[in-house]
Amino acid sequence: MMRIVQIAIALWALAAAVAEAAAPIGINYGRLGDNLPPPPEVVQMFRQNGVTKMRLFDPDPNVLNALKNSNISVALGVRNQDLQLMSTNTDAVNGWFNANIAPLMNEVAFEYIVVGNELVPGDLANFLLPVMQNFQALLDNRQIKTIGVTTCVATSVFGNSYPPSASVFADNSKEVMTKILGFLAYVQRPLFINLYPYFAYASDPVNIRLDYAQFTAAGVVVQDGPLGYTNMLDAMIDAFFWSMEKVGVSNVGVVVSESGWPSGGNGNLTNPELASTYNKNFAKRITTQNGTPKRPDAVIPGYIFAMFNENQKPPGVEQNFGLFNPITKQPIYPCFPL
Ligand SMILES: *[C@@H]1O[C@H](CO)[C@@H](O)[C@H](O)[C@H]1NC(C)=O
Ligand SMILES: *[C@@H]1O[C@H](CO)[C@@H](O)[C@H](O)[C@H]1NC(C)=O
User: Which domains does the chain have, with CATH numbers?
Assistant: First the structure.
């Protein structure tokens, strides 16, 4: 009897943990700065702040070596400029894997290979699927099941995205998105999506409510048929789910591969307080809450953009998305623990 009670309690605790701890938050380690700390120090900063997931835009050997035995899981990008060759040349795909992942397989927790960044629509979009297929074939050959293959898109794929239920992929994105989603459905991996309520808000601060963009609204702000939205991020995620459904895909998940708010660069729409509020609330949403109004059961992992302010990006807000000052290595505003 005691045993059964113990098992029941254990199962209940497990169910509660699954329901609550949606997913740990990750951070994008963007590296377009000439004043960034050395990679081993950056890995230390992730660990000291309890951040267990990192997204990298390219396979820098110094960064990958610094990640050895760090217990940080890594989403590793394949650079846009490498895709054309990799789309037809499996030696190039093998070479990339053998150089960057194979030697570190036992010491670094590679979670995803992310093929390309924000390429739909565009001239390189048609290379995405063949490169993803080539990586998947390599992983299948080597019987590696722990690494997923995906790509990362932005809201540029939409023809319409408001209200969420009216969302559709744009004519110039629909065909390639349908093929990519077919692949992701087959391999059962999520689509990476970059979502910035900040840019939507900044484009129309008169009509879009700040509290809706920052997860601080007290109740529903946008009612879409039976679905009520208290925050814009959920509406953007559901715009993807609706658009996918309209091309016949209802079983592919999403990962919010980038989201954030700049701490400067655009007058009173950007300051450390607003950035802190957004990033804290985004992290809270990812780590404590499953589902969206449309997909209540979906687990939606996410990564904040970004670790550092990057001084080699275009001036203005683009240089000000960082959580940390790269020179002092201090947080730009209080936001830890996330
Ligand atoms: C590695 O990370 C996982 C999940 O974040 C954690 O449960 C585990 O305790 C960590 N292991 C070590 C050796 O730090
Ligand atoms: C920015 O300033 C304008 C003009 O004073 C004001 O109407 C608006 O509410 C301010 N926005 C924020 C986010 O503080």
Answer: 23-319 (3.20.20.80)
